[in-house]
Amino acid sequence: MATKPVNLIYGVDDKPPWRIAFILGLQHVFTMSSCLFIPVIIAHEIGGSFDIIQSLVCFSMIASGLGTVLQSFNKGPIGSGYLCPHLNGPSYLSVSIQAAALGGLPLMHGMTIVTGIFEVLFSRIVYKLRSFFPPEITGLVVLMIAVSLIPVGVSKFVGIDYSGDSINMKELIIAIVTLFSMIGFNIWGKGKLKLFCVLIGLGIGYAMSFATGVISHNEYTAFLHAPWFSLPGKGTHLLSYKFDLGLVIPFIIVSLCSSLKSIGNLITCQKINDEKWSNPDMKNIGKGLLADGLSVTISGVLGGVATDTSASNVGLSVATSATSRIIGVYAGFIFVGIAFIPKFTAIFSIMPAAVMGALVIFVTCFMIISGIQIIQNCKLDTRKTFVIGLSFIFGLSAIILPDLYSRLPSWLSPIFASSLTLSTFLAIILNQIFHIGLKNKNIQQNEKVAGAYNKNSVLNK
User: Where are the domains of the chain?
Assistant: First the structure.
């Protein structure tokens, strides 16, 4: 049974009062909304109308919200029982655009369903792969999840959209004030001030953005005129699917990469909720991946974009010292409800980049430390040192030198396009290679010990 860490105000099995759970869920909703730009980009790439964009966003929110609720289940075969919210998966962006360009949204939705079914099947056998995920590799995965958040967080923090742009001082000041507001209330705040430190910081960031004109008059007007209720998908063609065998391999590779990221997020959830955590519970992870796979499948069926577990939200739960699964239920249903309320959707749609960057950096700090702590708890030897070191080095190369792997075959590009997936694949492969002969060596050592013991027994007789 897990031992609740002393630093948590509300642990995974605790039940906060509904008002507090609602506000904490709302904090997570703001973080979950940070990836709503993904369906917007996909719709723009194929020349989609406003109705198409709204449909993609709303149905993606519904799937993400339902996935978050399923993930919170702690009984039965579905759900890890942890606060591990879902959002639109950045890993799926490139293949989703490719599918939409080839066969429109019906092909993207059909291949998303295929991806979800693959993850559901993978979740049923992942518990047998325990040897592939020793603590040092899981710690590296958690660390690289945090590292993969750095480019997007820092670029938004300093107000840069493209390489070579000059720093936007106005947005930088807003980001600094927002970040240090969150940090200040987290360090020196007590009780509800600490719990709601992110929401307070977001409020300050929004207020500054409106006062300085970062939130434009048009954006504010769009918010004012947005209706209070609307059915998602109005005016669009729903329940239309296509499939393409040529896209199966790219989508499955991306699904596997996304699953590895979810494994890292779920392992982090296990660690932060158990003071005496030592090894990952792979059966629990399998239940979590099943919830993730069902969320992806639901998104494809409804007409949304593939979903994924959110590292930022896991970091947020650590930062606020509140990891209750009840918060996940509230966050999930709030996210689903907002899909029917364009007025609320507009609030997230106009979130300033500087505020978003401050939020990402805030939660990334906790993710980095969590990954380092997992690695430090392992008894590192030469083999493990090379597994972690080489994987970390080449994983970082995907960020430092983004064009280094640009000429690889298209079916390999999903692995090398992300520092997280590259380092994870390398770690798994190197771990198996460097352990060649280790089993035989251990057997020989055990035989020597047994022989010496028998010899002493005979002499004693």
Answer: 18-376, 379-461
From the list 455, 421, 440, 432, the residue with the least C-alpha distance to 383 is: 432
Round to whole Å and give the CA distance between 177 and 413. 38
Digit-coded pLDDT (tens) for 115-134:
999 999 999 998 887 777 77
Distances (CA, A) of 148 to 88, 94, 154, 354, 398: 16, 16, 11, 18, 10
CA 336 to chain centre: 18
Residues 6+ apart with CB under 8 A from 435: 383
pTM of the model: 0.74
| Cα–Cα distance measured from residue 34 to residue 146, given in angstroms and rounded to the nearest whole number | 16
Name every residue whose Cβ is closer than 8 Å to that of residue 446 and which is 6 or more positions away in sequence. none
Burial 231-248, CB ≥16 within 10 A → b, else e: ebbeebeeeebeeeeebe
Q: pLDDT by residue (tens digit) across 156-170?
A: 888 876 666 778 788
Query: What's the CA gap between 4 and 324, in Å, rounded?
Result: 11
Q: What is the mean pLDDT of the chain?
A: 82
